[in-house]
Structure formats: C-alpha cells, structure tokens
C-alpha cells in the first residue's frame, strides 16, 4: 500500500526574507514621505489662499454696502455698529460678512481693549493661516492671543489709516472713498503679515502688531507714516508658503506672490527681511503705478 509523505509547511519568514521586507518598507516610506509632506504643504497653502480670498471678498462686500474702505482701527471711544466692539480693528468690519474673529468670546471679552490683559483666543479659522499658529507668536507685549497679532494684516496706509496724529478731528487717511482707487485688481488690501520685523530680527518672535501691513515705502506725505502703528519696525507681508505670501486685492481675487513681486527690496528671503522704506508701491497705493519707486 502506497503511503503519501506529508509536505513540510513553512510558518515563518527567514531572517533574510524579513530583512528584505523591512528594506522594501523603509524604501517605500522614504519615497512616500516627501510626497505626503508636499501634499500637506500644498493643502495648507490652498487653505491660506482661500482664507485671504474670503477676507478680501468680505472687504469687497463692505465697500459695496458703504461705498468706502474700512478703517484699520476705530479711534478711542468709538464702537463697531453691529458687534459693539469698542475700538474695533478691521477684523470686525470684514467679520460682518465672514464671521467675527472671536466666535466663542463673550460680549465682555469682545470689548477688552487693555493691552496688558489676556485677550480671547482667535477661533474663527478664516483669520488663521495653517502655517502660522498662535503658538508661533509672542511679541514684546506678550498678547499672543490678540487679534492684532494674528495671521493677516490690512493695507492701512492707503486704504484706511484712522490714526489721528494730525490735529483732531482730521484722520491721517480716513475715510478713503472708492473714487480714489484707480486699479481695484492691482491694489493689495489683505495679506499674511509678519508683524514688526525688528522684533522678529531680534528675538525670532513673529506677530507683534501683524494686523497691519506696511508697503515697501512708507507714505509720509499723505498718511503721516513716520509714526508706525506697530512700533519701530516695518510690518511686511510674510512669505510663509514656499517663499510666497497669499495676497488679496480689492476686486476680490487673491494670489500667491513673492516679496519681490509685491515691490519689496528683499534683504534675507529665508528670514523674510525687507529693506526699510525702499521699493515700489504700485500694488499698494490704488494707482497701479508708482511715481517715485526706489530700488
């Protein structure tokens, strides 16, 4: 009688096979990680651009309703009409169309203006660049949660400088009527902001007074810009996404642009440092041209 011999069943990898499998997995991970990182960066850049476009379109709606540009900040004692925010910054005027920066804040929190007090955390995502979390901030005042130290700034020099350095009741440059804007599609209104670049250069901390944007050259003739809202240093656009910053224009469109394309004279691209008071203001002044560019 013929008897069959049972075959031997292998139940485990050999050491060599296991090492081969580990090597293949390591190789695949090495190939996939850059692609995943690139996809994540692209996703964050897309969210950032969408945020800036939404803020720009909110400003565009405000202009259509009020036929004027918004102030960078209301003077002492004045309140934003709908939210009753005291001395409201530009966020509340755009917020009428995109939601306010502190959605969860109580009415009492909304009216805090003392710079030494803890301010409510920005919780409306449209005001936050995914590459610029509040943990990155920490300006000299320590108010890391304040709207003034958020991700985006406003071209206040030309569009709504509501400072009152001039004798009252004369604002430095407010209100700005729409008839003064000659090129809506070539006038920057809102963009990612570094904040005071002098603070950043000294401490590596970004965000101090980043609710303002300074053009390449400060306008001292019309806007009394020798006194900066943010202190001693300019507040340029910050190119956070592959050396580009998201920029919204008055006509509602947005684009990712380099600092040089925005008119700045770049001193250190990696550290986002630009020359003080040099460059071309044609994308900032509402005219589309710059009669006195400097390079």
What does this protein structure show overall?
With 295 residues, the protein is α+β, with helices and mostly antiparallel strands. The chain has one domain. Helix content is 26%, strand content 10%. The strands form two sheets. It has a four-stranded antiparallel beta sheet, covered by helices on one side. Strands 5-6 form a two-stranded antiparallel sheet. Helix 1 (15-66) crosses helix 2 (90-98). The model is unreliable at 113-117 (pLDDT under 50).
Q: Helix- and strand-based class? A: alpha+beta
Report the β-strand fraction as a percent range.
5-15%
Oligomeric status:
single chain
The major beta sheet can be summarized as:
4 strands, antiparallel
Ends apart, CA distance between termini: 101 Å
Radius of gyration equals 25 Å
In sequence order, what are the helices and strands, one letter per element? HHHEHEHEEEE
The side-by-side strand order for the widest beta sheet comes to 1-2-3-4
Element layout with pairings:
Blueprint (H helix, E strand, L loop, with lengths): L14 H52 L23 H9 L8 H4 L41 E3 L1 H4 L28 E5 L4 H7 L41 E5 L4 E4 L6 E5 L4 E7 L16
Antiparallel strand pairs: 1-2, 2-3, 3-4, 5-6
Helix pairs in contact: 1-2
Main traits of this protein?
single chain; 295 residues; alpha+beta; 10% strand; elongated
Kindly summarize this structure in a few lines.
The protein is of the alpha+beta class and 295 residues long. It is 26% helix and 10% strand.
């Amino acid at each position: 009688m013929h008897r069959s011999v049972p075959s031997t069943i292998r139940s485990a990898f050999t050491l060599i096979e296991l090492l081969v499998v580990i090597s293949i997995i390591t190789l695949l991970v090495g190939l996939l990680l850059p692609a995943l990182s690139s996809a994540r960066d692209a996703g964050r850049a897309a969210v950032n651009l969408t945020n800036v476009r939404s803020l720009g379109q909110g400003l565009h709606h405000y202009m259509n309703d009020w036929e004027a540009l918004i102030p960078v900040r209301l003077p002492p004692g004045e309140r934003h009409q709908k939210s009753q925010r005291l001395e409201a910054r530009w966020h509340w005027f755009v917020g009428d169309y995109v939601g306010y920066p502190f959605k969860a804040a109580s009415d009492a929190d909304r009216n805090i203006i003392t710079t030494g007090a803890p301010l409510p955390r920005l919780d409306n995502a449209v005001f936050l660049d995914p590459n610029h979390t509040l943990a990155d901030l920490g300006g000299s005042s320590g108010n890391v949660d304040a709207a003034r130290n958020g991700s985006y700034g406003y071209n206040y020099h030309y569009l709504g400088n509501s400072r009152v350095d001039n004798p009252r009741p004369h604002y430095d440059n407010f209100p700005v009527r729409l008839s003064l804007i000659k090129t809506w599609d070539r006038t920057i209104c809102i963009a990612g902001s570094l904040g005071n670049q002098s603070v950043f250069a000294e401490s590596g901390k970004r965000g101090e007074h980043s609710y303002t944007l300074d053009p390449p050259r400060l306008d001292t003739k019309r806007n009394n810009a020798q006194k900066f809202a943010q202190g001693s240093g300019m507040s340029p656009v910050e190119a956070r996404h592959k050396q580009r910053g998201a920029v919204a224009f008055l006509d509602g469109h947005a684009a990712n642009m380099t600092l040089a394309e925005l008119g700045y004279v770049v001193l250190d691209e990696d550290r986002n440092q630009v020359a003080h008071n040099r460059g071309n203001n044609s994308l900032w002044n509402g005219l589309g041209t710059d009669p006195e560019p400097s390079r």
